[in-house]
Amino acid sequence: MSRFLPFFPLNIVVFPGEKLNLHIFEPRYKQLVMECQTNDSTFGIPVYLDNGVGDYGTEIKILSIEKKYANGEMDIKTKGLGIFKVKEFQRQMPGRLYAGGEIEDVPLILDEEPLHRLQVLELLRQLYVALGIQSLMISLKPDFLAYDVAHHLGLSTEQEYALLQLHRESERMEFILEHLTGILPVVLETERLKERVKLNGHFKHLLPPNF
């Protein structure tokens, strides 16, 4: 079933459950935010890539307007809800400054393969240790979802957008597992290279081979 949603296209990917702080300064989005706040309604952030609005985006709920400036600009706190697919895009909604369109909600199927989560968890641990950011593991719940780690994998915006389009949790975990399997050897090799570079120029205490 389709419905209409105001749009705030951005060159970012917002995942369900994600908290996002935005500074609103354009007149069209000031109007959008004030109308959403007044009507207690939501808006959509379709992903803007390659100079165009993509077919997929995330519905956004305004949690609070944190600050209003004298010139009408605002700082707002928001949260990602569900994923949608754009069925029809209007560059400007009738009588409004902002874009909008007809959307269809994308079902998020929470099937999973427990083994994949364990594999992802181990690869994440290795990656974060190599990068010296082990603290990211502390806040990770045992039953974490793909969306919970999606912004902490070194994915490009294009890769995050590809992840956004996957309906099943099992597919999202497979996507992450494949990505981590590919980049971890590169990261580990880079760290080894950094250590070798650091050692060059130091006095070396080497045991000569006995031959």
UniProtKB/TrEMBL annotation:
Gene3D superfamilies from the UniProt entry: LON domain-like
Top-level taxon in the UniProt lineage: Bacteria
Lon N-terminal domain boundaries: 4-182
Protein name: Lon N-terminal domain-containing protein
